[in-house]
Amino acid sequence: MYEHFREEERPFIDHIQTLREQATRYHQEKLTGFLDPRMQEVAKSVIGQDGEIDLQFFGGADGCERKRASIRPAYLKNEPIDWDISLFKAAYANKFVTLTHRDVLGALMNTGMKRETFGDISVTDNAFYVACTKEASAYIAIALKQVGKATVTLEETDTLELPDEKWEEKPVTVSSLRLDALLSALYGLSRAKAADLIGKGLVKVNWKVVEHPSFRVAIGDDLSVRGAGRAKVLKQEGVTKKDKYRLVLGKKS
After folding, report:
1. What fold is seen in the domain 167-252?
2. Class of the 2-76 domain?
3. I need a labelling partner for 210 at 20 to 30 A (CA). Which of 34, 179, 198, 222 fits?
4. CATH 3.30.70.330 placement within the chain
5. Where do the coiled-coil regions begin and end (predicted)?
6. Which pLDDT score is estimated for 192?
7. What does the alpha-carbon distance between residue 173 and residue 201 come to, in Å, rounded to a whole number?
8. What is the pLDDT of residues 147-177, one digit of tens each?
């Protein structure tokens, strides 16, 4: 199992395998915290075509990126799932302050909660929305009073207003799947400049800082460069006669 994944993903693989065993052997229903898209793909791969397991994902609303996974016996497949997700909205005076996704996430993390406690965060012109686990909702509502320079009050809501974001596709040909090579092709940088950004800790792959230019990127990986926004390796469209990779990369538009 491990040879198909990265070394740092092994603890999560073990966690999913434990939940699968609890579902099959002890007939338990299990919920994970909020998983990023890469973790969702790993969970799908670990569970595979196991006919004894019903695996489903949900983040609080259609279109969410971060989702909880439900792992339960297959005979419960047609039964409703209690996702234990709370949705919050907080209005703020945008005339006096501007908030970003990073501001909200930083404030939430400063409450002492772990990242898997929170799902998608959406910031609009005069409000922000956040999904969280129901068990943490009461504490978060009390603890989160300040985001950046804005004083906020969280109110529970039935909807999660998500931004209409699309990927701007960019076909590229690269000599390897190294991180520095992909960043160079995506942003029009030299390999040396891309390596410098990586070495300074300004680049994340699947929401984790990667500091090695030789890090091998996989199809579906989410990339971000501080100050330049997010990108994604959308798909591979073959290999050239000179063994170069034809890829389609995406940038948030």
Report:
1. 3.10.290
2. alpha beta
3. 34
4. 85-156
5. none
6. 96
7. 25
8. 988 899 999 999 888 876 678 899 999 999 9
**Each residue's pLDDT tens digit, 78-137:** 999 999 999 999 988 877 888 888 899 999 999 999 999 999 999 988 899 999 999 999
Whole-angstrom Cα distance, residue 194 to residue 198? 6
Q: What gap in Å lies between CA 33 and CA 85, rounded to an integer?
A: 10
Of 197, 216, 196, nearest in space to 206 by CA: 216
Supply the mean pLDDT for the chain.
92
CA–CA distance from 243 to each of 27, 68, 157, 246 (Å)?
A: 49, 39, 52, 9
Backbone angles phi, psi at 159, to 5 degrees: -130, 155
Those residues whose C-beta lies under 8 Å from the C-beta of residue 207, and which sit 6 or more positions away, are 36, 38, 115, 222, 224
Q: Give CA separation, 163 vs 7, 101, 128, 198, 249, in Å.
A: 34, 11, 11, 28, 21
Backbone angles phi, psi at 7, to 5 degrees: -60, -40
Q: Assign domain 85-156 to its CATH architecture.
A: 2-Layer Sandwich (3.30)
From CA 132, how far away is CA 120, in angstroms rounded? 8
Residues of the chain with CATH 3.30.1370.160: 2-76
Best CA proximity match to 177, nearest among 204, 216, 205:
216
